[in-house]
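May I ask for a sample protein chain and its fold as tokens?
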Amino acid sequence: MAHASVTLQLATLPDSPGVYQYYDKDGKLLYVGKAKNLKKRVSSYFTKNFDNNRTRLMVKKIVTIKHIVVKTETDALLLENNLIKNYQPRYNVMLKDDKSYPWICIKNERFPRVFSTRRMIKDGSEYYGPYTSMKTVHTLLDLIKGLYPLRTCNYDLSEEKIRAGKYKVCLEYHLGNCLGPCEGLYSEKEYHENVEAIRNIVKGNFKDSLHKFKNQMKELAAELKFEQAQRVKEKIDILENYQSKSTVVNPKINNVDVFSIISDESYAYVNFLQLSHGAIIRSHTLEIKKKLDETDEELLQLAIVEIRQRFNSLSKEIYLPFEVELGEDIKTHVPKLGDKKAILDLSERNAKYYRMERFKQAKIVDPDRHEKRIMAQMKKDLRLSEEPRHIECFDNSNIQGTNPVAACVVFKNGKPSKKDYRKFNIKTVEGPDDFASMEEVVYRRYKRLLEEEQPLPQLIIIDGGKGQLSSSLKSLDKLGLRGKIAIIGIAKRLEELFYPNDPIPLYLDKKSETLKIIQQLRNEAHRFGITFHRSKRSKQALNTELETIPGIGEKTVVELLKHFKSTKRIVSASFEELSKVIGPSRAKKLVEHFSNKS
């Protein structure tokens, strides 16, 4: 229920697009949001029942609502992004990234230098980037240096000073890396033509440079200047090699931004690819920590505005995995097939790889975060009321109807807890009856936990379909545990999960982590159950075999087992050891029987 003053503020909100701000009793900014219709959006916070605890907590704290009306939804999106960046409210997702990325600067001077920098100075110089990898910057600068001779000195090369002979050429000139503009040996016109070619290369357009070098090479070859022609050919090879590495898409796809999003319960990862002249000139992935129940659409919309601002992208076309409202000036496209779909898939693959890397790092650096994320994901995927920190999985093993046994494996915080595993001999069921066996072991397991006042699991998984699930429910009913522990059945097709009183199974995504953990549980239960079954079957076979030896009766077998504890030890015991227990004549019969077998 909203506070009285909040109710009054809600009543006066306009139906226009805009940005709203929530403040607490101390005037602290809690949250900034945007809306097509301010009244509808803000009111929904006070009428909806939120699953997310953080959202419920935030709504309780709201005392003041402020709003700013804007013309369009796009304006609202830009304003929201700027306010979040400036004030960093507690409940907003953080799109901040404190890194200062490198740029390539073409300096504003008569003979421009080209170099990398992390500081932008507004002196009329051109800055290309920012680049997310210093390696890319070094590669590009090496490429430029190899193709075009530019100066590296920081002298003021004004016309008067050069004419006055103020400077002398340096070592760079003698090495052939600079053509000596300081002594007027390199014309300003030619220097600027080279700088223009560099601009194109930095933008990802190699076509003009390649064309120029190929013509140059032909001219030199025609003049029989083969050595110089060879040097130009080397430049062509360098350019083509660089181009082939960066071109992974159709060259017709020009000046396009590509965005994709991968998200889980706690985090989202937005990948950005920038394409120019058929080449990927930039790739960046942004990690976003979710604060409330943000949708992928909301997160992607915010991330696009932030990333485009940060990387100064002016592309008028964007490829997206689903429609997102970004204003009339930007053309959005959701590719379904062909080269455009391939580039969107590539972006998604980059986001997935980044997410996997972050998971691996988190596992090492912050195992708690990794656990929390998996538990939150399982709770959501399996529609549970609480996180399944303690899971127990049951499996029956009665191969060819003999020695019916069952296994119970226990996972705590998503990992096997082997000391808690339990095995059961089926006592009350005659013959192979999976349903009755499951009913028996589930009853015995939880009757014991209740008697010993041990903690109960949050989730029980029954390896089997509807029949085994119904049998297990009978046991939970008898113990008064129905509804207190979540229980699901897994069919032979692993991704099919059955719930009590629901004829339609839930299907899990085959790639989901929840399914992987259930798969691991089921495999462990199988392994543990079958190992127990085999050892029991082989023991019984040996016990029966002992009784078939002439002169060895049931009483002798009991005596031997009492002393040696296992059939294996009886088989490997020496004649003297056996004689002490059953006398020399029967010991001799046993030793002869097993030595004949081997």
Notes: The two ends are 82 Å apart (CA to CA). Residues 382-529 form a domain with the Nucleotidyltransferase; domain 5 fold (CATH 3.30.420.340).
